[in-house]
Amino acid sequence: MLSHDVRMTPSKQIWPSVRYDDAPGAIRFLVDVCGFEERLVVRGDGDREIEHAQLAWPEGGGFMCGSRATGEGAQFNTGKASIYVVTDDPDAVCDRVKAAGAPITRDIQDEDYGGRGFTVEDPGGNLWTFGSYRGE
For the chain, which has fewer Cβ within 10 Å, the N-terminal or C-terminal residue? Predict the structure, then answer.
C-alpha cells in the first residue's frame, strides 16, 4: 500500500480562464504590474498568438489565459470577466498597480463585509479585484 503525504497534495482550487485579443499584453500586465508569476506559455503561430498560458498567484491558485480562438469550431472567445484574487497585502498590490499607471476602477477601501481591496481593469477590459477577504 502506498502512503499518501497530505503535505504534498495541492489544495483544490479554481483556475479561471479568459481569452484576449492581445494575450501577450495581458500576460505582461498580470505579471509585471499585478504580481502573477508566469509558469507556462504555449505559443501558436506568430508572436501574438498564445494557445495556452498559466499564471500562478504567489499566495495560491492561478489563472489561465490565451488568445481569442479563431477558425471553424472555435469555442473560446473574448468577453468581460470579473475576478477576485485573495492577497494578504492588497495595499501593496494597489500601490504597484497605481505606480504602473493602470486604470483603477475602485480605489483601495475597507469593505462592509470584511477585508480590504481595490479593483483594476486589465488591457482586455476585465476587472480584477485584489482583496484580503477570504470568504466565510
Answer: N
